[in-house]
């Protein structure tokens, strides 16, 4: 915050512009410890913030409507509703939503199901934090990477 005292008034410039430029991420994964780790990694990035977490696809669909993230980090295999079905439902309602699939499976079948549903990318859970943040940036702003 910058304070300027001109004419007897305090003018405060808050980091709103900086905050508006942050990529808003929704994390969807059925493993709590993994969600917590992802949240810590993403929130450490100066240009990203986690705006919500969901433990299954059904909750992801509802939460997406509420928080309107820039990028959804979507696990592939979850209870209640899997990632491919959730991706399809979200994109049917909000066609411009950007979804990055996240999975432990390097299987072509899982990858194909997510890409056919409309995910813009697919990253393995074994990736390091730099790969993860780079993938989120690429999905959020493909023209800037």
Q: How many E-type strands?
A: 7
CATH homology-level superfamily of the domain at 46-140 = Response regulator
| Number of alpha- plus pi-helical segments | 6
Quaternary state of this entry equals single chain
Order of helices and strands: EEHEHEHEHEHEH
Outline the biggest β-sheet.
5 strands, parallel
Supply the CATH architecture of the domain at 46-140. Answer: 3-Layer(aba) Sandwich
Q: Can you characterise this structure?
A:
The structure is a single chain. With 145 residues, the protein is α/β, with parallel strands linked by helices. It has a domain at 46-140: Response regulator (Rossmann fold, 3-Layer(aba) Sandwich). Helix content is 42%, strand content 26%. The chain has six helices and seven strands; from the N terminus they run ββαβαβαβαβαβα. The protein has helices at 16-20, 32-43, 57-67, 83-93, 108-117, 129-140; strands spanning 2-6, 9-13, 23-28, 48-54, 71-75, 98-103, 121-124. The protein has a five-stranded parallel sheet with strand order 4-3-5-6-7, sandwiched between helices. The chain has a two-stranded antiparallel sheet with strand order 1-2. A hairpin with a 2-residue loop joins strand 1 (2-6) and strand 2. The longest helix has 12 residues, at 32-43. The chain is globular and about 30 Å long. Residues 1-19 have low confidence and may be disordered.
